[in-house]
Specification:
By secondary structure, the chain is mainly beta. It is 0% helix and 53% strand.
Length: 290
């Protein structure tokens, strides 16, 4: 394990191995840090907008996309020149962003209960799709082969939309307090990491048919994740909230301060259950049956 230092409020990350760099946003300062993948040293900083959150990378055009919550915008960054191309006004507070289709990105707006399509060539929102029954859409993933968007909602539901016309083709129950959604095209699975201490695993039967495969116990607050598409391993992280000055524990549904030294990483491997590791420190790993 390693650490990229000097990040003020990290929310999202993306990597570009061909350039040998990674990108991490700074939610507190409204900037995107560029770091060396070998040394993890920050080598550049690019302005974005207020409350930078989700980060995505569009490899064909070498474009980094940063969704800015309080800025109500999507920053387009030239990865080669390391400069901001534009801030696209979204008309709402973004949470997730995916950019797999050439020329377009999709963003969910938590406060507007919408998914918007952004024209990356003309730097504007050209389509808005309502997801009225989705309270605070947070996670967003995409199946490009079938043109499906997966929108995870704080109220315990995942919606499947057509990326062509925004039609809702399916809804599936998930855990409460989702923050991230991931699609695994190799295994046809969708994951939602939830603050209630569950990882929802959804099976894609067909482009329009889905079912909840498992609700895997993780830990309270483990609402962010990443997946290794080759191995299928899913990684989640959480920690123990610090107490407030009045001695009360903070809510994991919010954005609490954490107790130093209590960070835990969880790994779910296909057919091997859930493992945990503690960091910093040497830590240990043990299997937890699911």
């Amino acid at each position: 394990m390693g650490q990229v230092r000097g990040i003020a409020g990290a929310h999202g990350i993306a990597t570009e191995p061909t350039l040998g760099v990674g990108y991490a946003d700074n939610g507190k300062t409204g900037r995107l840090s560029v770091f060396d993948l070998k040394t993890l040293r920050v080598i550049d900083s690019i302005p974005t907008d207020a409350d930078s959150d989700a980060v995505a990378y569009l490899a064909p055009t070498h474009t980094v996309l940063v969704a800015n919550g309080d800025g109500h915008s999507l920053s387009l960054i030239d990865a080669v020149a390391r400069r901001r191309i534009a801030n696209v006004a979204l008309g709402g507070s973004p949470e997730g962003v995916v950019a797999i289709m050439p020329g377009y990105a999709f963003v969910n707006l938590a406060d507007r209960r919408q998914v918007v399509r952004v024209d990356l060539l003309h730097h504007l929102v050209d389509t808005r799709w309502p997801v009225a029954e989705c309270v605070s859409p947070h996670g967003l993933a995409m199946d490009p082969a079938n043109q499906r968007l997966f929108v995870s909602c704080k109220n315990g539901v995942l919606m499947v939309l057509s990326a062509r016309n925004g039609r809702i083709v399916a809804t599936v129950p998930i855990g409460m307090g989702t923050d991230t959604a991931v699609f695994d095209p190799k295994r046809h699975l969708i994951f939602s990491s939830n603050a209630d201490g569950t990882l929802s695993v959804i099976d894609q039967h067909t482009a329009n048919s889905y079912g909840l495969l498992a609700s895997v116990p993780t830990a309270l607050g483990a609402r962010t994740m990443a997946e290794d598409p080759e191995s299928g391993r899913v990684f989640l992280v959480t920690a123990e909230p610090a107490q407030t000055p009045d001695g009360k524990a903070q809510s994991r549904q919010d954005h609490p301060r954490f107790k130093p030294g209590t960070v835990r990483m969880f790994m779910l491997a296909p057919a091997h259950g859930l493992e945990t590791a503690t960091h910093p420190g040497p830590g240990t790993a043990h299997a937890i049956s699911n």
